[in-house]
Amino acid sequence: MRCKSIYWLAFMLCFSAIGCDNTEDGSYVDPITIYEKVNGNWGLTNLKMVDEAAKANKIEPSEENLSIYFNYEDFKINFSVDEKNKPTSYQVTGNVPPLFAPKGYWELSSDFQPTNAGATKIYLYSDEQKTQKTDELRLISVPGKNEEMQLQLVRSSGGTPFVSYIFKLNAIN
Amino acid sequence: MKKFIYTILLAFLMAPNFVKAQENAGAVGPMSSFPVVYKYDEKVTWYFDLSGTTFAETEDLYLWIWSPSEPDAGNWENSSDFAKLKYEGNKIWSFTLTPTLYFSKTPDEIAASAGFWFRLKNKNGSKQSDVANMAYTDFSSFYTANEVIRSYPSKPLVDKPVSILFNANLKDGFAGVPSVHFHSGLNDWAVLQEYQAWIPEVSEKTKLKDLGNGFYRMDLIPQQYYNTEPGFVMQNITFLMVAKDWTTNSGDQIIYAGEFIPPPPPVFAFFPLQISQKDFLGMSRKNNEAGVNKLLYTITAGSKTISGEFSGGTAEIKGFVNLVSELNGLPNLSEIHVLVKDNKDKTISDTTIPLKTLDK
Question: Which of B275, B285, B324 to mutate to test the interface with A (most CBs of A within 10 A)?
Fold first, then answer.
């Protein structure tokens, strides 16, 4: 019985030896930009309203979950890119209140993830030439393997944020 | 064997169908009775607080009781009228019965049973509460305790029923009197309900229930019996038990009231602390008074008026107003006026909220 299991082990080892045959040398590809990660269709999993003034002063409650209100369970957003991975238009679907302009054009503040602490911003425009900025969203969690993304819409007055909305999104398809 | 297995499988397949037809309305909340203590052959009213259930105020509800006996047996899908509860308001329902008659049992049989076990349900049985038990307080030890007075509870509250027992055998002159009366006051006779023997209504109101063999009982809810103002703090009940036409009395007696623990005060708040024209406005009210279950708002923004309501319970009423859509594109707004009332038309908040100007 013991002999038999040793044979089996040897047999399996052969497999792992031949398994590592091919080496991938790779050919040149463009570096992956955030556009590749952000583009596509996203559905809402959670919407949180944060009272930034209360949070700054440690007053409770400082957060409320809005996911169950105003049809937000149906919130979906699409960010489109062209064949060169350049941002084109975006659109919100689902019959929800317009916290930001529901359709227009978009671009990122930076093609790549910044190495410093600051979050990448998504600028939203009403025109294709991207001269009329309507809103901006902070990309506070960049999609990775988990296909999750978090966007924050911040309301500020005199440079001080007083309310923000955090959209937690999941990739669709 | 095979047949047996098929039967079991079939039973499992069918089970969800039966379960689905049944909506669970939740657990029956605090229960009470009036009188607080009673014999099984006396008339009593049971009270059920169903504010924690999904039963609606408008619903007709029925008692489905199977212990000590099952008077409405076989009628789960069409409860009989005799089992119908009475709606008392504030999501409290009541049922009045004389246990010996309702269950067709003697007091001894009821005493030997497992107690009062029941569910509350709607007429056709599609909605039911959890199984509940109405506790019974046995006061028979009083008959042999050599106590002149005993009250249930021992420290009564102003807005809750109390039963006061009297053993007339321990006081001279009560043997064979036609009736015994409760000559009393609250807080060392500050609020009175005297025994005015010459006024028939007062004579009737103050009359104790004769339990036989020289034992008597008085049942009352202080704030109703003495007609006290809301917020009255009861410290004690002072009284004499008086024989008809004052032929004799028990001497001064006193029962001290339980500590009155005021309910936590209601708290109303807007969320967030500051808003712009493009934000949602939340509002919530916690620790609501009994019967308060709605907030009705009227928001005036320039020439536009927005109104609506939020529902909830005593724990909390909460909701959000969609100012984002309602005020979308309205020019030159610097503030909104918000008026909030409860369902009893009391003003909860009447305030002006400035709107923050957003950075571009």
Answer: B324
How many Å lie between the alpha carbon of A111 and the closest alpha carbon of chain B?
23
Domain that residue A82 falls in: 34-171
List all residues of chain B from 280 to 309 with a beta carbon under 8 Å from chain A. Answer: 280, 282
| pLDDT tier for residue A13 given thresholds of 50, 70 and 90 | low
Interface check B194 vs A, CB under 8 A: no
Pick among A67, A95, A162 to test the B interface (most B CBs inside 10 A): A162
Q: Taking residues B17-24, what's their average pLDDT?
A: 62
In a domain, A39, yes or no: yes
Query: Are B320 and B282 in contact, with CB atoms under 8 Å apart?
Result: yes
pTM higher than the cut 0.80: no
SS3 category, B327: coil
Q: Compute how many other C-beta atoms are within 10 angstroms of the C-beta atom of residue A133.
A: 16
Residue A122 lies in a domain: yes
- The β-bridge partners of B122 are B61
Nearest to B274 among A97, A99, A163 (CB): A163
Size of interface A-B (CB pairs under 8 A): 64
Amino acid at B30: P
Report the topology of domain B21-134.
Answer: Immunoglobulin-like (2.60.40)
Task: Give the tens place of pLDDT for each residue, A90-102.
Answer: 999 999 999 999 9
> CA–CA separation, B191 vs B195, rounded Å?
13
Choose the closest CB to A53 out of B273, B280, B325: B273
Whether CATH 2.60.40.10 fits B267-356: yes
The CATH number linked to A102 is: 2.40.128
Q: Per-residue pLDDT tens for B132-152? A: 999 999 999 999 999 999 999
Q: Is B274 on the interface with A (CB under 8 A)?
A: yes
Q: Which residues of B touch A97 (CB under 8 A)?
A: 280, 322, 324-325, 328
User: With a cut of 0.95, is the ipTM above it?
Assistant: no
